[in-house]
Amino acid sequence: MQINGITFSHGKKPIFNDFSIYLPEKEITCILGNSGVGKTTLLKLIARIYQVENGTIEGNQKRVSYLFQEPRLLPWKTVFENVEYVLLNKLSKAEREERITDILEQVGLTAEKHSFPHELSGGMKQRAAIARAFVGKPDILLLDEPLQGLDVVKKMEIHELLLTLWDRYQPTVVYVTHDVAEAIAVGQQILVFHGRPVAVQCQCFVHTPLPKRNAEDEQAYLKGISEHLLLQMKLANEI
Amino acid sequence: MQINGITFSHGKKPIFNDFSIYLPEKEITCILGNSGVGKTTLLKLIARIYQVENGTIEGNQKRVSYLFQEPRLLPWKTVFENVEYVLLNKLSKAEREERITDILEQVGLTAEKHSFPHELSGGMKQRAAIARAFVGKPDILLLDEPLQGLDVVKKMEIHELLLTLWDRYQPTVVYVTHDVAEAIAVGQQILVFHGRPVAVQCQCFVHTPLPKRNAEDEQAYLKGISEHLLLQMKLANEI
Amino acid sequence: MKGSTSKNDKWVTLSAIVTLLFIWWIASLFYPPIILPSPAETAGKALSLFREGKLLGELVVTLRRVLLAFTISLMVGTVAGAMIGKTKNLYLFVKPIITIVQTIPPISWIILAIIWMGLGGGAPIFVVMIATFPIFFFNAAHGINQVSKELLEMSEIFQVKRHRQLLDVYLPSLWPFISSAISICIGISWKTIVMAELLSSNSGVGASLGLARLQLETSEVLAWTLTMVIVGVTCEQLFQMLSDKTTVGKMSKCK
Amino acid sequence: MKGSTSKNDKWVTLSAIVTLLFIWWIASLFYPPIILPSPAETAGKALSLFREGKLLGELVVTLRRVLLAFTISLMVGTVAGAMIGKTKNLYLFVKPIITIVQTIPPISWIILAIIWMGLGGGAPIFVVMIATFPIFFFNAAHGINQVSKELLEMSEIFQVKRHRQLLDVYLPSLWPFISSAISICIGISWKTIVMAELLSSNSGVGASLGLARLQLETSEVLAWTLTMVIVGVTCEQLFQMLSDKTTVGKMSKCK
Amino acid sequence: EEGEVKEKTDDGTAAQEQQGEDMAESGDDAADHGEQTFTFLAPKSAPLLPALLMEEGTVAGPALEISTWDTIEQLLAAVQGNEADFAAVPLNVAANLHAKGLPVQLIDVNTWGTIYLVSVDPEVATLEDLENEEIYVSHQSGPPDILFQHFLDQDGLTDKVTVHYSTPAEISQLLLGGKVKHAVLPEPALSAARSQLQGDFVQVIDFQAAWETLYGMDLPQAGIIVNSEFAAENPQAVEQFLQSYQEAIDLLHAEPEKAAALAEEAIGMKQPLIETALNHMKIMSVAALDAKPVIEQYFEVLFDSQPDAIGGQLPDEGFYFQE
Ligand SMILES: Nc1ncnc2c1ncn2[C@@H]1O[C@H](COP(=O)(O)OP(=O)(O)OP(=O)(O)O)[C@@H](O)[C@H]1O
Ligand SMILES: Nc1ncnc2c1ncn2[C@@H]1O[C@H](COP(=O)(O)OP(=O)(O)OP(=O)(O)O)[C@@H](O)[C@H]1O
Ligand SMILES: [Mg+2]
Ligand SMILES: [Mg+2]
Description:
The complex is a heteropentamer, with two copies of chain A (239 residues), two copies of chain C (255 residues) and one copy of chain E (323 residues).
Chain A: E1 2-10, E2 13-22, E3 28-33, H1 39-46, E4 54-57, E5 64-67, H2 79-85, H3 93-107, H4 122-135, E6 140-144, H5 152-169, E7 172-176, H6 180-186, E8 189-194, E9 199-205, H7 219-238
Parallel strand pairs in A: 3-7, 3-8, 5-6, 6-7
Antiparallel strand pairs in A: 1-2, 1-4, 8-9
Chain C: H1 6-29, H2 39-52, H3 54-85, H4 88-103, H5 106-144, H6 149-157, H7 162-200, H8 204-214, H9 218-245, H10 247-253
Helix pairs in contact in C: 2-9, 3-5, 3-7, 3-8, 4-5, 5-7, 7-8, 7-9, 7-10, 8-9, 9-10
Chain E: H1 14-17, E1 37-43, H2 48-56, E2 63-69, H3 72-80, E3 86-90, H4 91-99, E4 104-112, E5 115-119, E6 134-138, H5 143-154, E7 162-166, H6 168-176, E8 182-186, H7 189-197, E9 202-206, H8 207-215, E10 220-227, H9 228-233, H10 235-254, H11 256-267, H12 271-279, E11 282-287, H13 288-305
Parallel strand pairs in E: 1-2, 1-3, 6-7, 6-8
Antiparallel strand pairs in E: 3-10, 4-10, 4-11, 5-8, 5-9
Helix pairs in contact in E: 2-10, 2-11, 6-7, 7-12, 10-11, 11-12
Bound molecules: adenosine-5'-triphosphate (2 copies) and magnesium ion (2 copies).
Keywords (chains A, B): ATP-binding, Nucleotide-binding, Translocase, Transport
InterPro entries (chains A, B): AAA+_ATPase, ABC_transporter-like_ATP-bd, ABC_transporter-like_CS, ABC_transporter_ATP-bind, P-loop_NTPase
Domain ABC transporter (chains A, B): 1-220
């Protein structure tokens, strides 16, 4: 997916100005960058919630799933119904039921299936939102800090789940996070954003294949990338 | 602060049953535990948003600041006004102005002083909420995942800020997080919750004094704790 | 307004009504029956009207008019308000027109209404529509701006069909506004139809009430009023029950 | 309803009014003046009433009554609705009473109102209050349940004073409901006062309109109606301007 | 009562049409009628005119304060509150008030024959010509309706015409607007139509004349009532009032312009219209007792078809004031 010289500003705040990046199809691109730089804005531009003022984003006309930075659950629907909401009129009832039960099981919300969002803990809401984002078969998957609010174990589980899904449907994934380790664990391409308007501070490719990245001999290589990225992020913050 | 045999349930879900812990006054207690275990519920019980069904929480009648898991900003007020809201009728206008300008500077929101919440990025909202929680001089400071949604650099800054404030006013802090490293960096006592109803899976004391915990010779000690905690959390999750 | 047994609800409603009856009874002791008959006299009169068959006959006429007018207002007003409320300029254009229409007293409409719709019952229907439409319109127009943009964005991205969005996002968000408008309009429609029938028609409860009034039959006036009140409150209770039972009503309470 | 220049707003409102005038003018070509006088004739009549000093005189009388009734309803209705709406049982008790009061047509109130309040202007004031109070009440009662519990919890914990909570949390959340009720009630009060004055008083615009109607002075009837409409729309515009200027109005748009 | 008492009555036309029904007016001041001051409550119609002359002081007698009523509620509230010494009301209303147990007595009948069947169709001359036509009648179940039905019945036309009901204002407006061809309306509501329609206006039946043909007597319409206790205690006051009222009527007949001019201001009705209306109503004060047979004949007709119009019973002796 090619982002071609896009320009966008929030009111008088220029976020992107003639900004271009390439997001390889069917690969996972991670985006790092300090708070308020424009990561969420980029995702919303790709999802067409915002319209670019100039330039083009090629390939965003496909089926999109978006995990928002906030859970955005319908307060008057149960967890099950919230997930079902995005499948209605797309699948038969039986099929829906099966898929939803399955995904809720995988994010660990089976017991909360019939709870309303206000009855959930923060991490549970996040998992419900993850279930909703993962339940379809999207061509483009936009994830805005998907693992926030989850404990270490849940983080690993969701991480696994993401890689399984990616393996199965091969969507183009854009994955925004603040955690360098997380980025290295899933990203095939890692971008660090900085500045206003946004510039790419650093672009890294991680050549170790997904989904397994824990072979002993890779550790040093990955550690190197990690340190490089951390340094870049600190630099970015200072500008 | 002593929590004495409290009992509390959400509907039919028993969260605490004859649960007791001791939160040392003027110290920082970190709480770890898997998603949905009852960490937020404990904070709300201390803050008296929920009322215990049984047992007592001693010492929660003091001045409380609470950083919620969600930002909870007033949508119709600017960042400045949101922070001001909790100081109104408590301080003079000039004093308020000074304190707010100061704290916004420290969380890096000076430029967004007059922005409304819907104009902020996720991390900015979180920082606005932090500013609000830190602006008063609380006796009890309840922090629910305070560093979520922030980039590494901001995390460190807020971390510093918290320790400075703690140093200055010496509030009793209850700090909920999912990040073991974070817990070790700030906690004097660290509790890991698990199960339903909640039990304390493990209790650790970190003897290295605050605020500095990066001396070379401590590394091994801290690493030990960290590994212990991680193991405990994985165990907790399996129950 | 948290949940509770609906049995309790009924008792509360009943006790409210008993209280009112009691106040009425006390008040009636201070005035001669021609000014304020007692509840008993009024009920007696209502009973005798019922026996004559007049009560039900006229009530049905009025009921049909109100139902028609109310339904049209509800549908058109809510939909128009919701659609127009979203577009600032259109709203600014329509708003003064509706305020004007609403400000014109029925008495000034009546002659046009009679000419357009005859003496049959068109005019009362028209007047009730004019009285209730703006309420649905304004409530919906204000409500539509309270619908969460975030949930709508979410729905768009997941390509949720329009009608599902209406049902699952718009309706629950608008519901407090719509149900408020319904509560208000149930009372208003019954009141307005009486005035309108009194002014322009020779059938229906309003016409009978007008007649009774000119004949100084205060107890009959009150008997008709009582009938309207009972029907009105019943409608309101029915609506409440329905609303509490259907998903939308339950939905909008989860917030 | 996003922001825009208020100059544009005025043009839109003006064009709405011109459109209505145009429709009226076209309609008046199809009917004899006794049925529907043209805008020009009506304006002429209004002018001559103004010259006689009658227009302003009666208008002031009516204006004072409406202002009084409206203000009381707004205050009491909103406060009562907000307070009672929060307590389920109390609300269930009060709700049928208000529905009943609202369903009783003015004509059934009038005799009591005259006796209680004399022929002066008490009765119209009473009737307008009864017509508008329930609207404020129900809108506030429904609105209060939409106030975010989370923000209230937050305010409690930070020990924000009650009156600040009212101002900064309740009011902005209730505002869409209140302002909707105000929009609705501005129209309704003017309409109702005319009916009430016509039935119970011998001063004010309503009484003059009733007289004109009996004398078949259709153009005078419309002149009075026009006066009411102008005043009504002006009130509404004024309210809108005020609301847009004050913080609360701006506040509730940021959502 | 703090009602603003309106001493001017402004409208005129309307009122009697109402036969007291629709409108009413206000007040009266009740205040203490000192020795010499009487309070008088009248609809904005014929019975008011002599009173205006009395108030002016053009005739001898005690001072008079006038207030007017438009709607039945205003009348009722005033009678209940005993706010006027004398009140002019349609006869059926008077009987009704009496039947409902209010302490009122009739002292005179002063307005006669105010109802007409009119048409804008020049072909129509008699009731028979209206066969299969639509006729608009004001005051459903009130005197215009009952009397009209009575005449239809006499001519055997009851089921051969279609009757619609509405208020006098609407009917007159529709008549003038050409949407209605035939109507039964009372004066003075009718005089506006009279003066505006001029040549196109056909007066098909004068109810007064028709009544006279049937029963050989006048058709009584409105009179003055008094609080019976007040009357019992002050019979001379009633006497005094009636006498002065009679003088005022004489003056009214002698110089109608004068009363009309006063009324123009008091009821806001144009002077020529008042004079037109006066020409079609018979103003003549007859003491209640003297008019009793005439009134009873009238009430019997009302009673036969609509007992409720006079309170469900023929008034007893106590209804008629006697010294
Ligand atoms: N609706 C809006 N109106 C005005 N400004 C906005 C709006 N949304 C975002 N901004 C501004 O645009 C900038 C980028 O916001 P964005 O949400 O893309 O940041 P981000 O990189 O996602 O940050 P975070 O990591 O904190 O979520 C911020 O400075 C923010 O203040
Ligand atoms: N208002 C509520 N009504 C019913 N159940 C609730 C409510 N709030 C929380 N719960 C339940 O209570 C349990 C504990 O919730 P709590 O919010 O304390 O979890 P937590 O430890 O903070 O989790 P997280 O890390 O995900 O925020 C959860 O199982 C949740 O489903
Ligand atoms: Mg973001
Ligand atoms: Mg939590």
